[in-house]
Design a protein that fits this description.
single chain; alpha/beta; 4-stranded mixed β-sheet; two-stranded parallel sheet; 13 helices; globular
């Protein structure tokens, strides 16, 4: 199960708790406003409306401070409660105070279409937490399983679903597309977890060397991810600050595996280390230095849904001899 699916599961777990406490049917949708207010009350969070120029916000859209959520009261109603749901995500997932600006809370384009929180796994630790809170809020208000049920079993269309939750149809359509097109990953069979990393002699030598820089040659299947994880744990044990550690991998899978292995030793440390793919690192540099790169500061990326829809529209021009699973043609 991917890290992002775990975030969705956490959102649905809280949603079930609130539904049970309020005697609501979890297979139904609710207005964003009512459900967020019920959730805040359930979690004993105080919601404090603020003027955009309030010193409590300092330019942010919303701020989580202990058990209080300050929010910009001049936003559109649906987006206001999405921002509050975002802060509830921080409260539920990260258990720490945060100050979220417009760049950090889910960015909705003028047409209401959201950018995916899952485009890339590897981001800086703070940036990653914001994407986790964005995904949590979206799944909390528009759970994929419920959308799928209402669309397929009760024949409700996007406009009807949009009216129910009082959110833009473009936002609902994006989440519904994911629910229908992207299969949910089956959870892996549970294996006995251990904090020990079993290394052979060459791996241990690479992980614990005091030389810096060090170049290690390793072929496929030689335990590169495991060795790099052990190296990070060794550096932490040597007193290196987690935020000074950058680990780059070729694949999202390896990045997530490395982060999960580090979390077995210390979840707090794992959240502070920057573990990302080379592609994500390159994107981060381009986003930071977009002027020098002569790029648009909000350059878009294709996520799973974008790629699936683009491929589906162009299947006829690919001259394929046969089709595989049309729900996931990639």
């Amino acid at each position: 199960m991917s890290h992002w699916q775990k975030i969705r599961d956490a959102a649905n777990c809280l949603r079930r708790e609130v539904c049970a406490a309020e005697n609501l049917n979890e297979n139904e949708l609710f207005t964003a406003q009512n459900f967020v207010l019920q959730t805040a009350e359930r979690l004993e969070l105080e919601l404090i409306p603020e003027h955009p120029e309030s010193s409590n916000l300092s330019g942010a859209l919303a701020v989580l401070e202990d058990d209080c959520i300050h929010f910009n009261n001049k936003l559109k109603d649906w987006y206001k409660f999405f921002c509050i749901a975002h802060e509830i995500g921080h409260f539920y997932l990260h258990h720490q105070s945060v100050h979220c600006t417009q760049d950090e809370i889910q960015d909705f384009a003028d047409d209401g279409a959201p950018n995916s929180a899952e485009k890339l796994v590897g981001y800086g630790a703070g940036d990653r937490r914001e994407r986790e809170a964005n995904l949590f809020a979206l799944e909390f208000l528009l759970p994929c399983k419920t959308l799928q049920h209402l669309y397929l079993e009760q024949n409700l269309n996007v406009r009807q679903l949009s009216r129910t939750v009082e959110m833009p149809s473009e936002v609902v359509a994006g989440q519904l597309a994911r629910a229908l097109l992207v299969p949910v990953a089956e959870p892996k069979s549970s294996e006995k977890e251990t904090k020990e990393i079993d290394l052979n002699d060459s791996q241990k030598r690479a992980a614990e060397t005091a030389k810096c820089p060090t170049l290690v040659y390793a072929g496929p299947g030689t335990g590169k991810t495991q060795t790099l994880t052990a190296r990070i744990v060794h550096l932490i044990n040597q007193g290196i600050e987690p935020k000074r550690i950058l680990a780059l991998t070729f694949s999202n899978k390896a990045a997530e595996e490395m982060r999960e292995r580090i979390a077995k030793f210390d979840e707090t440390v794992a959240a502070k280390i920057q573990v990302m793919t080379f592609h994500a690192y390159g994107l981060e540099i381009l986003r930071k230095y977009w002027v020098e790169a002569e790029l648009d500061p909000r350059s878009g990326l294709l996520d799973k849904i974008d790629a699936l829809l683009h491929l589906e529209k162009n299947l006829n021009v690919l001259q394929l001899e046969h089709f595989q699973n049309l729900h996931e043609p990639t």
